[in-house]
Structures are given as structure tokens and as C-alpha cells.
UniProtKB/TrEMBL annotation:
Keywords: Carboxypeptidase, Glycosyltransferase, Hydrolase, Membrane, Multifunctional enzyme, Protease, Transferase, Transmembrane, Transmembrane helix
Entry GO CC: outer membrane-bounded periplasmic space
Catalyzed reactions: [GlcNAc-(1->4)-Mur2Ac(oyl-L-Ala-gamma-D-Glu-L-Lys-D-Ala-D-Ala)](n)-di-trans,octa-cis-undecaprenyl diphosphate + beta-D-GlcNAc-(1->4)-Mur2Ac(oyl-L-Ala-gamma-D-Glu-L-Lys-D-Ala-D-Ala)-di-trans,octa-cis-undecaprenyl diphosphate = [GlcNAc-(1->4)-Mur2Ac(oyl-L-Ala-gamma-D-Glu-L-Lys-D-Ala-D-Ala)](n+1)-di-trans,octa-cis-undecaprenyl diphosphate + di-trans,octa-cis-undecaprenyl diphosphate + H(+)
EC number: 2.4.99.28
Principal EC category: transferase
Species of provenance: Wenxinia saemankumensis
UniProt-recorded name of the protein: peptidoglycan glycosyltransferase
Compositionally skewed regions (Pro residues) per UniProt: 715-730
């Protein structure tokens, strides 16, 4: 034993590695009975889990959520991808060839030509014809891609990067993520232009505007539909075909649909010929066509084009020198595009033409009109000049001008002070206003046609008329004075009211109504004494047309603007003149004498401010009660012009009568119209002698004998109610003067006639 202990020099190394407690645990484990091991079928042994620390317990919920999201996302994504694929396949199967998509207009267009065949106005939506990416200018194609979708040739119809950038910009600017910048690709914009393949149906939509507004509506679901439709287009068409559809369907302001129509509208050239500066301006319109249209604001359009030029340079479509050149010489409107006048006239032609070829046309229509752009510019310049120089700043007073030829062909029309307006209220054709003294020439026309003479006399004395149902009425003159006995020409040139009333009653109120209506004044004329002073209402174009009947020798005219209407591409017109000279209203003699009387109005009377040196002119002023309307209508030997002035709300004019500003506007207009024109004499006759001197009798002695034997001529019986008087004809003139019941001086007695003749023969005074 002692030998064994001696042979063991110390504890083994293994013994030293364990503590006593560890050894005790080992001994206890050896003594404990062992449990039989369970058989584990098919299970691999797991490594022992590590205990979670504090951070592990904090991150555990997030890790679980991520696992759940991933498990759900890939399954949902798979389902969505399947549905998107099905949607793309369906839309792709329904898309037609691009030829059926380039012209998507629901209605046609109207192009208007002036009397010389030059285009001056467009209505509806213009489509200049199909263009392709191969036929347009490369600058235009590049400008569109640069400004609208720089990754157009790389994405599959949807650009997630562009959408994310647009949403970030919208949120940064305080808008909703889908408000403002949309991040849409050219393909998505084309899908919107196609309204996702849903055509316009008049039975479904109240108007085309409502349909287009719905197509432009932006919602989350609509954006999803656009994306699916855009991807279907990428499947069905090539990139060049998609861009071709876009170039033809995009709206570019001023009624231009497609870049070909826009290039023609703004620059007077094809889209194949535009320069880099012009291409940049056209591409810049895509952001906001109405706001950036150069016909609306050229400077704004040029500023937007400069931005597009910068994008083209940055993306390598323009060299530095080419970009500098485009910025130094920005695009300019063509001369034709700058002439934004004639809008009121064009609107009137559209309103008076056949609806199915104008307002609701589905065809492209060409209308040749009567407009003279030189005269139109003269009228517009005159109106602007007078209001700038003679009307107080800030005044809301309005004015209108119509110029026409003697046959009723309207050469110019201004319907208000905003001369560039289209679709606005037209005061020349739509405003019914009291005519005032401008109606008086038709009273005199009736009297002259019945045989009276401009040198016959009428009483300018106080008058009271008992009007049934209204009681006594006492007309007054503008100056509240009475001039006693005056000639007809004096009464007209001084615009005396009481003589006009007396003359209307002498000629017969129904006769006056008949003459006025036949000349074209047809709105609610009533046969009462106040009619002689212009108590009725009429439009400026109607009144100007009635005066044209006086100038042309006494025949009615229907004012017209349409000369010829045809479909684009058809050589034969579908319809011709929309008006012209009609039936005779008064005799030529009466018309020529009335022209002379109206010439005296301008030469000596209330219309003196309308005089133009070197030209014979005639006309008539008109001012209504309380000065709510002021008129001047007159003519030269070739043109008739009418001017109205007043407030839209019937506020009285301050210090304005027809002999004032309206006459000034008329003179400024006609001075420009007649400038450099050879004077044309007025078709007028000065009467040789008044009818009460027995003018035209071949034998004064025989006349006297007949009077002594048979008495003075007897006036015809008054006409039945509603029928015009028919006076007995004179052997010489075919006319006979009616007994004016005291309103006119009756012929002298036979003794006076004989004494007058003897005095002439003997040289007596």
C-alpha cells in the first residue's frame, strides 16, 4: 500500500480540472438509476436554443410581423400579378389598329375664310391629318419625349421611379399624393386620351365636355386602370406606334387636336417643318394647353418653351449651340395666327348657319364668308381708340359696331369692347335695345313713299294725343323747345320729336309699321304714336340692315355672313348665300329723297360729328329716354355702318347722345374704311320744289279750272283696321299725298297757284 502511494506523485491533470462540487455531481449521477431512452422516429435532433436576451425579446414581435407580412405579400402579389396579366391580355386583345385611333374627335371642325379666301377663324376641333413619328420633325419628337417621358423607350408602360418622384413633389408642395404632378408616362397619357378604350356615347353623356372631364378624372382606381391599359398598349403596339397615337390625339389649345393642327394653327406650317424653338413651344403646350397657348399669351408660351429647350439640351437632343440659338430666337406666331379678330362675326355665322353643319357638325366644314379683314380691323381700332381717348378709365360702358354692304353682306362686326372674345355675348346681334330717334327715317320713308316731299312742312308745336287705354300723351322735343312750321328735312336733320309723331299719324301708323317690318325691323312693332320716337326694340345688325335698304334704292335686305359652305375635300358647295337683297319696300324716288334728307343730317344737323372730308355721307342719330341707349347709323355710297353704345344693365349714359360718342366711333370707323378709297357719291336727289307748289303739273291754268269745276282733290277713305292706306296715284309720279288732317300744310288755293305761276312768268317776287 505504501508502495502504491509512493508511486503516485500527485493528482492527475484531469482531476485538477474539476471542482469538488462537479465531482460530487458526477458521483450522484452514477448512483442514480438510468431511465430507458425513448425511441425517436424520424426526428432529427435539434440544437439547443439559445436563450433570448433583452434585445431579442424586444425585436421578437417585429420579426414575427415581418415573417407574416412576407408570407402574405408574396401570396397577394402572386394573385395581383395574375389579375394584372389577365387585364393586360384582355385590353391588348381589344385594341384596334392605330389608324382607327389617331382621330378621336366626337365632332368636326369649321374653318372660316374671309371674302378673299384667307382663313380668319376656326371653330370646333381642328385635326390637320395623320402624322407619324417618321413624318414629323425629329425636333418635335425629341421635344415631346424630353418634356413628357424621358424614360419612354425603357419602361413597360409604367414608370415607378417617375410615379414616386411625382408623389414626393406633390407632398412637398402641400398637395395630396395624386394631386398635381402625376408621373404618368406617355403611354399612360395616351391611355387617358383614349379614355381607356371607352368611346363617346351621346346617349350616355349629356355633353362631350362631361365625357372628357370624366376621362381626365384622377382617382387611385383610375390610375390602376390606366397602368394596366398602358401595359396592354405596350404589348399590342411598338413604342413608335404609341408615340404616333399621342402626337395625333393630344389637345394643344385654340381648338387644335394633334401636333399637325397645332403647327398649322400657330405657325402656318406642317409639323414636319417646325424648328427646334417651334417644337419646344408645341411640346410645352402639353402641360396646360389653354394657359400656354401662344395665341393667349405669347410671352408665357415662350418662357415655357425655354424650359423645354433646356430639357432637350440636358438629355442630349440639342447641342449647346443649337439650344442657345433656340433661346435667342424664340418661336413667333404666324401673321395669320396673330389676327385674332373677327370672333364675334364668326360666332354669328355659327349661330345663323345650319346647326348640323356648324354647332353640331361631325364633319370638317369650310365656310366662305363676307368678312373683310381690313374693315374688321378698322372697326376694332376705332372702338379701342375712342374708348382709350374719350371715355373715362374704368367705365363699364359697352359698344358694338356693324359694317355691311348695301346688299346686306356683313363686312365687319364688333360685339363688345373685348374684341378677342369668342363665345361671348354679342351686343351687335343679341342685345335688344330701344332704337330711339334712329327709327325716324322709316317714318319719313313711309311719308315720302306716299307722295310727300322733303320740302313739305309740318308743325313743331305742342301736341297732346289721347291714347286709348293709356290716357293723354304729350311728346316733347329733346331741347324742350318748339320751332313752329318746319320742313320735313329740317325736322329730320334736327331730330324733332313732335314733327315725327305728327308725320307718322299723317302717313298712317300701320303704314309706318309695314315699311319698317319690310325693311327688316320685326321685333314687336306696335302701331302707336310713340313708335315714331323709337319706343320699339331692335338689334344693331337688324337696324343696320334696314338702313342698307335705304341706300340700295328702297329694297329690303337680309344681313348675311355665309357665302358658301362645303365639306373639306369636296369641290362642290352644299349651300350658297345666306341672305341678300329682297323685295322692294319703297319707291326709288322716295329712297333717293330720303338719302338726301339723311345727308343733310350729317351736313347740317345732329350728325355733324360724323363728317369725313371728301366723302358724301348720310346718317341718323338716336338717343332713348334717360339716355340708356345711344345710336348712330349711316352710310357712304358703298358701306353702311351702325354703332350702338350703352350699359349692359341699362344704366343711363352720362352726357352721351347719339350725336356724341357713337358718331365719333362711326366717324373713326368709316375714316379707316374709306382711307385711300375713291369717293363714291350717294344715290340721292334734292327735291326741286315742295308738293304744295303743284310741282309736276303740265298746265297750271288747266289745273286751276279743274279745281274750280270739281273742287280740291279728296283724300281716300281711311284704311280698315290692320290694312295700310292706298292713296290714289298721281298721273306724273304714281304717288298721291294723303290729307294729313292738319298735321301738314295743305296745298295752296287755286288763286295762289295761279298767282305764283304768273309771278314767275312776269318775274314778280
Amino acid at each position: 500500500m505504501s508502495g502504491e502511494r509512493k508511486g503516485r506523485s500527485g493528482p492527475l491533470v484531469a482531476d485538477r480540472r474539476y471542482s469538488r462540487s462537479a465531482k460530487a455531481e458526477e458521483r450522484n449521477a452514477e448512483r442514480a438509476p438510468k431511465k430507458p431512452a425513448r425511441a425517436r422516429r424520424g426526428r432529427k435532433s435539434r440544437p439547443a436554443r439559445r436563450r433570448r436576451g433583452l434585445v431579442g425579446w424586444i425585436l421578437a414581435p417585429f420579426a414575427f410581423a415581418l415573417r407574416m407580412v412576407w408570407a402574405l405579400s408574396w401570396r397577394v402579389g402572386l394573385v395581383v400579378a395574375v389579375f394584372i396579366g389577365l387585364g393586360v391580355a384582355y385590353y391588348a386583345s381589344t385594341l384596334p389598329s392605330i389608324d382607327a385611333l389617331v382621330d378621336g374627335r366626337a365632332r368636326g371642325s369649321v374653318t372660316m375664310l374671309d371674302r378673299n379666301g384667307d382663313t380668319f377663324a376656326w371653330r370646333g376641333e381642328q385635326f390637320g391629318g395623320m402624322i407619324t413619328t417618321d413624318t414629323v420633325s425629329p425636333h418635335l419628337r425629341n421635344a415631346v419625349v424630353a418634356t413628357e417621358d424621358r424614360r419612354f423607350y425603357w419602361h413597360p408602360g409604367v414608370d415607378p421611379q417617375g410615379v414616386a418622384g411625382a408623389m414626393r413633389i406633390n407632398l412637398a408642395e402641400g398637395r395630396g399624393p395624386l394631386e398635381g404632378n402625376g408621373g404618368s408616362t406617355i403611354t399612360q397619357q395616351t391611355a387617358k386620351l383614349l379614355c381607356l378604350g371607352r368611346p363617346y356615347d351621346p346617349a350616355e353623356w349629356e355633353s362631350e365636355a362631361e365625357y372628357e372631364a370624366d376621362c381626365r378624372r384622377t382617382t387611385l382606381w383610375r390610375k390602376v386602370q390606366e397602368a394596366v391599359y398602358a401595359m396592354a398598349m405596350e404589348v399590342r403596339y411598338t413604342k413608335e406606334e404609341i408615340l404616333t397615337i399621342y402626337l395625333n390625339r393630344a389637345y394643344l389649345g385654340a381648338g387644335a387636336r394633334g401636333f399637325e393642327a397645332a403647327a398649322q394653327r400657330y405657325f402656318g406650317k406642317s409639323a414636319a417643318e417646325v424648328s427646334p424653338a417651334e417644337a419646344a413651344m408645341l411640346a410645352g403646350l402639353l402641360k396646360a394647353p389653354s394657359s400656354y397657348a401662344p395665341t393667349s399669351n405669347l410671352q408665357r408660351a415662350q418662357d415655357r418653351a425655354a424650359v423645354v429647350v433646356g430639357l432637350m439640351e440636358a438629355q442630349g437632343y440639342l447641342s449647346e449651340s443649337a439650344a442657345a440659338e433656340a433661346l435667342a430666337a424664340p418661336a413667333q406666331l404666324s401673321a395669320r395666327a396673330q389676327q385674332d379678330s373677327g370672333g364675334f362675326f364668326a360666332d354669328w355665322v355659327m349661330d345663323t348657319g345650319p346647326e348640323f353643319f356648324t354647332r353640331d357638325t361631325t364633319e370638317d366644314v369650310i365656310i366662305r364668308t363676307t368678312l373683310d379683314q381690313r374693315i374688321q380691323a378698322a372697326a376694332e381700332d376705332a372702338l379701342i381708340h375712342v374708348f382709350d381717348t374719350q371715355v373715362r378709365e374704368g367705365s363699364d360702358a359697352q359698344a358694338a359696331i356693324v359694317v355691311m354692304s348695301a346688299d346686306g353682306a356683313v363686312r365687319a362686326m364688333v360685339g363688345g369692347r373685348n374684341i378677342a372674345a369668342t363665345g361671348a355675348f354679342n351686343r351687335a346681334t343679341q342685345a335688344l335695345r330701344q332704337t330711339g330717334s334712329s327709327f325716324k327715317p322709316f317714318v319719313y320713308a313711309a311719308a315720302l313713299d306716299m307722295g310727300m316731299n322733303p320740302l313739305d312742312t309740318v308743325e313743331d308745336t305742342p301736341l297732346t294725343i289721347d291714347i286709348p287705354g293709356s290716357g293723354p300723351w304729350s311728346p316733347d322735343n329733346y331741347d324742350r323747345e318748339f320751332h313752329g312750321t318746319v320742313t320735313l328735312v329740317e325736322a329730320l336733320e334736327q331730330s324733332r320729336n313732335i314733327p315725327a309723331v305728327r308725320l307718322a299719324m299723317a302717313a298712317g301708323l300701320e303704314n309706318v309699321v309695314t315699311v319698317a317690318e319690310m325693311f327688316g325691323i320685326s321685333n314687336d312693332l306696335r302701331a302707336n304714336p310713340a313708335m315714331a320716337l323709337g319706343a320699339n326694340e331692335s338689334t344693331l345688325v337688324e337696324m343696320t340692315g334696314a338702313y342698307a335698304g335705304i341706300l340700295n334704292g328702297g329694297s329690303s335686305v337680309t344681313p348675311y355672313g355665309l357665302v358658301e359652305l362645303r365639306l373639306q375635300g369636296d369641290p362642290e358647295p352644299l349651300m350658297g348665300l345666306g341672305g341678300g337683297i329682297g323685295e322692294r319696300v319703297i319707291s326709288e324716288r322716295a329712297a333717293r329723297e330720303l338719302v338726301w334728307m339723311m345727308h343733310q343730317v350729317v351736313a347740317e344737323g345732329t350728325g355733324r360729328r360724323a363728317q369725313i372730308d371728301g366723302h358724301e355721307l348720310a346718317g341718323k342719330t338716336g338717343t332713348t329716354s334717360a339716355a340708356r341707349d345711344a345710336w348712330f347709323i349711316g352710310f357712304s355710297g358703298e358701306y353702311v355702318a351702325g354703332v350702338w353704345m350703352g350699359y349692359d344693365d341699362n344704366t343711363p349714359l352720362t352726357g352721351v347722345t347719339g350725336s356724341g360718342l357713337p358718331a365719333e366711333i362711326w366717324r373713326e370707323t368709316m375714316a379707316r374704311v374709306l382711307a385711300s378709297q375713291m369717293p363714291v357719291p350717294l344715290p340721292m336727289d334734292r327735291p326741286a320744289a315742295p308738293s304744295n307748289t303743284m310741282a309736276g303739273a303740265t298746265d297750271p291754268a288747266l289745273d286751276a279750272a279743274l279745281r274750280e269745276a270739281f273742287g280740291a282733290p279728296v283724300a281716300p277713305a281711311p284704311p280698315a283696321q290692320g290694312q295700310p292706306a292706298q292713296p290714289a296715284p298721281d298721273p306724273q309720279t304714281g304717288q298721291a299725298a294723303q290729307d294729313p288732317n292738319g298735321a301738314l300744310n295743305l296745298p295752296n288755293s287755286t288763286e295762289d297757284a295761279i298767282l305764283d305761276v304768273l309771278g314767275d312768268i312776269l318775274g314778280g317776287g
